Amino acid sequence: MLCGNKFDDLGSLEFGYNRVVNKTISYTPFELVYGYNPLSPLDLVPLLVSSITNPIGLSKA
To answer: What Gene3D superfamilies does the record tag this protein with (predicted)?
Structure first.
């Protein structure tokens, strides 16, 4: 994970740590500070409707 400079992946590690829900308080560290959770790169990608519907399931419905 750490290649070359040990600080290269620090931003990714910080982002991941700040998005993990704490079991005790049921909030993420980011949410406690800013009041909302940050968007992840997957939250920014639109999901196509055709990719979430199964044509066989639609014909049986």
So the answer is: Ribonuclease H-like superfamily/Ribonuclease H
Per domain, the residue ranges of the chain are 10-60
For residues 19 and 29, the answer to whether their CB atoms sit within 8 Å is: no
Q: Which two tokens stand for residue 60?
A: 């049986």
* Helical ranges in 1-61 per DSSP H: 10-18, 29-34, 41-44, 49-52, 55-60
Prediction pTM value: 0.57
Residue range 3-59, pLDDT digits in tens: 677 777 788 888 889 999 999 999 999 999 999 998 888 888 887 665 566 777 767
How many helices and strands, by DSSP H and E, does the chain display?
Answer: 5, 0
Residues 6+ apart with CB under 8 A from 15: 38
